[in-house]
Amino acid sequence: MASPGSLTWLAVFFAALFLLSKLRNRLRLPPGPPGWPIIGNIFDLRTQTHRDFDRLKSMYGPVLWLKLGNLNTVVIQSAAAAAELFKKHDVAFADRKAPDSLNACDYIKGSLAEAPYDEYWRILRRLSLSELMVQKRIKSSAQLRKECIDKMIQWIKKDASEFCEIQLEKYLTIMTYNQLSSFMLTRDITDYKSETGNEFLEAMRNFLCWQGKPDVVDAFEFLKWLDPQGIRRHTRMYLEQLLKIVSVFVQERIQERNLQKGNNTRDFLDALLDYEGDGKGSVDKLSEKNINIIILEMFVAGTETTSNTTVWTMAELLRSPDSMSKLKAEIDRVTGSSRAVEENDIPELTYLRAVVDETMRLHPALPLLLPRKAREDTEFMGYDIPKGTTVIVNAWAIHRDPDSWEDPLSFKPERFLNSNINHKGQHYEIIPFGSGRRSCVGMLMAERTVSLTLARLIQSFDWELPANISPETLDMSEATGFSLRMSTPLKGVPREREAKC
Ligand code: HEM
């Protein structure tokens, strides 16, 4: 029989639940499935979160309310709701909901992507935008990107003569790392044989893999001390390894600058080292520790996202021979027969841009963008969103919404021809780079990298699927990690076309 003490606790527990539900009723929360005490809606998330949210959309509409453990969560799942968010409530929802594991090595304190909407974030954002989003800077780094792609094409040629089929991800990953490191540090970070480079890539792969796992601690803060899945422990281990490698590069540069040696080109690292506040704010210099974190973060944010997008595009083209031939014909027409395609050609390659947009629509690298957090109590589309609520935008669901797209599941680049809709963040039916104040700072560089890489791959080789795979049987299923990737690595058979490049 239950003791009087336990009966009292039970009564207190149910009274608390009752009061909570009353409070919920007073707040006009968005609709959502009923949750269980304490765990809330955790069991409504079964497979891949972006698909689970999309499934719930058909029952509860485009603004969904969930309680994930003790975490209030609102999920935005239509272009109209996203427009409302980005146009009217961008500031109110401009904080980030960072995963607890990223507190390891004080990562969040130095980070731009996970920083709250504060002075430190504004400084980093301004600095990054002037390096990454200003056309002049992007144009002046075109040669660096070209050289990295040239090397990749040469590697593929060499390997294609030895092996019949190649796994594309490997080449694209290394090329993307080198593009970013030559832009930020004026050096390659790896090649196919580099030991340190491979150590960096391996640690990064592991770090991103742990970051891709949902952490129960984020829903139940009281489990923090236990770290039941070991996510914080592993995150710390790989972060330490990665930061150690980056710190060597940064230290070398500081010494070169002290000795006034080195080349005269000013790169992203120089911009971080040169930063000086105006004396009015609280940040006058960036600490070496934070500079290490920022450099690392650009690799985190910019490499897998870019290379996975290129892999998905190749997969869609290999499944769609008609689109592949149209693209090849366009590139040949624009470049003639004697030269390699260049970044300057991209404005003329309208079909190429349509192919990339269509791929990012179907396979957004970050299907839930990066979660935000409400900075204050906010009235949103007639609902009350309490301060501290996690705000998730399900770009994946928006990109496949039949209210915005005809035949949304089919790959049809033609839908972007003669259309003014693009991915730049003003058309809320396609937001692979997000929108508003927290949108991607690397968009200009990413769109150039993906487009040029693709154009060079198509111009240099005729591509086929391996003999045992047809367009119908190619596995297009998704694996979720930090970013959306193909669950079966894509293989292709490249046959060299006559030498243009
Ligand atoms: C195809 C490639 C890429 C895709 C699809 C992508 C996508 C995104 C998305 C969806 C966000 C969050 C936006 C939001 O919350 O509204 C984001 C943020 C960010 N991205 Fe990218 N990204 C790519 C490449 C890059 C590159 C190349 C860099 C850097 C060189 C980069 C750096 C960042 C940073 C620093 C943020 C955080 C911005 C902030 O919180 O203020 N990304 N990206």
Report on this model:
The structure is a single chain. The protein has 18 helices and twelve strands. It is of the alpha+beta class and 501 residues long. The protein is globular. The longest helix is centred in the middle third of the chain and has 28 residues, at 231-258. The protein has one domain (35-496): Cytochrome p450 (Orthogonal Bundle), CATH 1.10.630. It binds protoporphyrin IX containing FE. Protoporphyrin IX containing FE is lined by residues 112-113, 125, 132, 180, 298, 301-302, 305-306, 309, 365-366, 369-370, 432-435, 438-442, 445-446, 450.
> What is the structural class?
alpha+beta
Helicity range: 40-55%
Strand order of the largest sheet: 1-2-8-5-3
- Global mean pLDDT: 93
The whole-angstrom Rg is: 24 Å
The tally of beta strands, per DSSP, is: 12
Total of DSSP H or I helical runs spanning 4+ residues: 18
Beta-strand percentage range: 5-15%
Q: What is the count of distinct domains?
A: 1
Report the major sheet: 5 strands, mixed
- Quaternary state reads single chain
Q: Write the CATH homologous superfamily.
A: Cytochrome P450
The low-confidence runs, each spanning 5 or more residues with pLDDT under 50, are: none
Tertiary shape: globular
Q: Report, as a whole number of angstroms, the end-to-end distance.
A: 83 Å
